[in-house]
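Example record used in the benchmark description.
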Amino acid sequence: MIPVYNEAQELAACLDAVARQSVAPYEVVVVDNNSTDDSTAIARSYDFVKLVREPKQGVVYARSTGFNAATGEIIARIDADTTVPTDWVSTVQSLFEDVTLDAVSGSAEYTNVACSTFFNGVDLFFRRRLERQLKNRVYLWGSNMAMRRSAWQQVEPVLCNRAGIHEDFDIAIHLQELGGRVAFAQELQAQVSSRRIDVDFVSFIKYALVSPNTYAQHRIKQRIYMYEVVAVCILGYVPARLLHRGYDPVRQQFSVTQLLFCRPTSVARPDPTVHVA
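Model output (structure tokens):
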């Protein structure tokens, strides 16, 4: 399932990666959340796509519409700026051979940024660290995740569905409160855009703080472990944004010319934790 709002720049690459899967997905649901660009035309150009529409603006609404439209026993979710390796579907299938697993999310490899190996390493370090620290309170990451359809049907009625929280974290929190098991699996890898960094400092830090704030609103004490990630975001904001803005996609490396004279290679996105309607 892929929620989409004005993703014409990214969607074709995302769907091309889905088309290259060694094991074809049972179905591919794209949810149009009132796009005004060519996103829907791009989605329709792929004959394996099931296109549905969610008129209420906000990723939380698009997510629920997409999950409810899915008919497979395992519902996998990525974002329009996610590109998955050819074995992604088969990896999801193998993970859910564990009958105790209800939901899982994986690791990230960042694109559109110089020194991506360093970024990926830092990201993986903290995902592993949080997995150990959070224990039975592990989060879900909507850009690269999957869950059993039965788990979704169980958790949907109790979800918060409000602004100011990470809706994917909210799924994990309530699913675990209902006795479900959520896990992090490093082997479930996906490439994602680094475009989230390309906003002003205040907006970026507000977004980073949504993670512990989501746990705080649910009165989960393990939120304290997330503040060190926020600290890294504060310290790393300037160099990370420069490395994103200076990334030359042709040479696939940092370029001063790109930084000073060229437009960014990706479009910054609206904050998904803010509901428009």
